[in-house]
Amino acid sequence: IIYYLISIFSLVYERGKLAKILSTDVVTGGFNLQYFNKNGNRLLKKNRTNKYNYAVVTIQMDKYTNFCSCYGIREGEELLEGFVEVLQKNISKKEILAHGEKAEFALLLTYKTEEELTKRLKDMISKMKTVKADQKKYLVDFVTYFVKAATNIIQILVLLIGRSFLVFTLISILSSVGTN
Question: CA-CA distance, 30 to 48, in Å (whole number)?
């Protein structure tokens, strides 16, 4: 019996380690989009009472490839790590941050008013600009998608891939299916 108990605990431990490996971004050491989708879905499901307003936000550094060509890939990765540190300091436990492709970050943020969220995001961007301040970076403004209670994680995933036209089409199709 002791052997089986040890085996069960070992399997649970190994599964936890595997889940952590699968949800970790190899460049920044933070979370990846798989983590974002899994936990974003969990947060949205928990929020059925609409206690929180959620927004999906993407922040992207434009011309990241040029930055890496000029300063090197290692410098580019260190820059992304610095961005993750800044962003993680500015989110709560009810919010999620993930690194997407290249220099794109996805956030699921709570907010009270759109103005408050916009101010908060501008503050995050200004703090991101202080990372490696001596090197020229091209941070574009953030793009915010306000999440309605009926929104599901599939729509959010499509948003993060950067195909906003497809998402708005998908949302239109889903809402028209729901109304017919």
Answer: 27
CB 82 within 8 A of CB 28: no
Question: How many residues are listed for the chain in this entry?
Answer: 180
Are 71 and 170 contacting, i.e. CB atoms less than 8 angstroms apart? no
How many Å apart are CA 52 and CA 98, to the nearest integer? Answer: 20
Residues 6+ apart with CB under 8 A from 80: 27, 28, 99, 103
Q: CB count, 10 Å around CB of 112?
A: 9
State which H helix or E strand residue 92 sits in: none
What is the rounded CA–CA span in Å between residue 152 and residue 81?
Answer: 29
> Does the pLDDT at position 88 exceed 90?
yes
Residue by residue, DSSP assigns 118-141 as: HHHHHHHHHHHTTTTTTS---BPP
- 163: pLDDT confidence band, cut at 50, 70 and 90? very low
Residue 122 pLDDT > 50, yes or no? yes
Q: What is the pTM of this model?
A: 0.71
- Residue 167 corresponds to which amino acid? V
- Smallest CA-to-CA distance from 156 within 27, 19, 38, 23 is with 38
